[in-house]
Specification:
GO molecular function: GDP-Man:Man(3)GlcNAc(2)-PP-Dol alpha-1,2-mannosyltransferase activity
Organism: Medioppia subpectinata
Number of domains: 2
Shape: globular
Protein name: GDP-Man:Man(3)GlcNAc(2)-PP-Dol alpha-1,2-mannosyltransferase
Subcellular location: Endoplasmic reticulum membrane
Number of strands: 13
Family: Belongs to the glycosyltransferase group 1 family. Glycosyltransferase 4 subfamily.
Structural class: alpha/beta
Length: 466
């Protein structure tokens, strides 16, 4: 009896805090519904997407998912939690139209989050994963304290918000996972003392620091697994992501391939290609590994030049978007790398360009390249396939498992030497073989259409909507 009293005494502050939070959340819900003229029986469907105005593949998923939901359930109220406080709702919708050709001509309530900076990696030079995850909990509370949804969908990978919305907000929780916060590949990389953008040399070169980081990763993976099991519905974007999510979350996840505008791109001409023009599509982020593209391209044109081939017309066109000052600094670093390799005139950077310009660049290019290690899916890769480019990607992740069959509809490589050699091999292929690969590439892109995504997404999410 004494022990029970002690336990109750220790728990009482948490019980009171929980009751106060639940009471406050009910008031928030009543106030939000009153301000927006919503009856109590109108369902609020909210997407947690703090970077909704970034213009990447994840944002295409968001907008197509919202459009599909509204088309099927027009009486629901739709919310997007965003940290893009400088962008007005009409500007966000206009960018979706300009970037993706997606019309959002229905009501979307944008709930602005002023503390988005707390999920940025620059605040956490060490224990980055843990810091960002804890930061997302506070950002989740900021979101919940403005709007309490009936259905909460995390579409950016902030899974540590699940308990906030499920247990405090009383929401039914769903997730669309683009990339696991931690994966078994990351654990293996640390175990093998491999240096990477998320495993600095000072750690990989030290046995003590490696052991410490491995313990930290294992503890975080365990916590990540507990959190993941709080979602009622889990969708993933590729076989690679499915494998890692199911391994760590210990639950089933359904693969719903991201939507790509394949029909539009398949109408582009396969004629009059610039033989030595290579295009790259992807946000300017460290994991995209753009420096490998620049280095491999330099090796490729040097190889051609050594054989007396004129490379003056050779061009690497890097198309991407920058989210913030850190991305813009990475862009400047890439430009500096091009200058240092003396190929500045052969490398072009196209940042935040409209969709029509993207199509023009793809149509005139001959090769598409993508160098991210363990890319979760690769919408940019699918866009290259649909456009009939000879597509060369890193032999890992989603591109290897779901997108590219080496030598059939594209090619795979691992480092600058193999990327250079594959580019050289492609250059030397005869026109008949090139045409076969282009046609195979287009055919393989059919299963990644917007229509296919909408059907699978709606089927998967339906159980938490009613």
């Amino acid at each position: 009896m004494f022990v029970l009293k002690v336990v109750l005494l220790l728990l009482s502050p948490f019980i009171v805090l929980y009751w106060l939070l639940k009471t406050y959340v009910r008031r928030v819900d009543a106030k939000y519904r009153q301000q927006n003229g919503l009856r109590d029986d109108v369902k609020i469907i909210a997407f947690f997407h703090p970077f909704c105005n970034s213009g990447g593949g994840g944002e295409r998923v968001l907008w197509v998912a919202l459009r599909a939901l509204h088309h099927k359930y027009p009486d629901y109220h739709y919310v997007v939690y965003t940290g893009d406080i400088e962008a007005k709702p009409e500007e966000i919708k206009a960018k979706a139209k300009k970037q993706f050709q997606i019309d959002l001509n229905f009501d979307i309530s944008f709930v602005y989050l002023k503390k988005r900076y707390i999920v940025g990696d620059r605040l956490y030079p060490i224990f980055t994963l843990l810091g960002q995850s804890i930061g997302s909990v506070f950002l989740g509370f900021e979101a919940l304290f403005q709007c309490v949804p009936d259905v909460y969908i995390d579409s950016m990978g902030f899974s540590f918000t699940f308990p906030v919305f499920r247990y405090i907000g009383g929401s039914r929780v769903g997730a669309y996972v683009h990339y696991p916060t931690i994966s078994t590949d990351m654990l293996q990389m640390v175990t093998n003392t491999k240096t990477s953008y998320n495993n600095r040399a000072i750690i990989s070169n030290s046995r003590v620091l490696t052991s410490g980081k491995l313990l930290y990763y294992k503890l975080f993976a365990y916590l990540y697994g507990l959190i993941g099991r709080m979602a009622l519905v889990v969708m993933v974007n590729s076989s690679w992501t499915q494998r890692h999510v199911e391994s760590i979350w210990k639950r089933k996840a359904r693969t719903v391939y991201p939507p790509c505008n394949t029909d539009d791109l398949k109408r582009l001409s396969l004629q009059n290609k610039k033989e030595l023009q290579i295009v790259s599509i992807g946000q300017i982020r460290p994991e995209k590994n753009h420096s490998l593209q620049v280095i491999a391209f330099k090796e490729f044109i040097d190889k051609l030049s050594s054989e007396g081939i004129d490379t003056q017309s050779a061009k690497l066109v890097i198309i991407g978007s920058c989210r913030d000052d850190e991305d813009r600094q990475r862009l400047n670093d890439l430009k500096q790398l091009s200058r240092s390799l003396d190929i500045e005139s052969n490398v072009e950077f196209k940042v935040n360009i409209p969709y029509e310009e993207l199509k023009d660049l793809i149509e005139e290019s001959s090769i598409g390249v993508h160098t991210m290690v363990n890319e979760h899916f690769g919408i940019g890769v699918v866009e290259c396939l649909a456009a009939g480019l000879i597509t060369l990607t890193h032999a890992s992740g989603g591109p290897k498992l779901d997108l590219i069959t080496d030598g059939v509809n594209g090619f795979l490589a691992t480092d600058s030497q193999s990327f250079c050699q594959k580019l050289y091999n492609i250059y030397n292929l005869n026109k008949s073989k090139l045409n076969d690969i282009r046609l195979n590439a287009r055919k393989s892109a059919d299963r990644f259409s917007e229509q296919e995504f909408e059907t699978l997404f709606l089927t998967s999410i339906e159980e938490i909507l009613h």
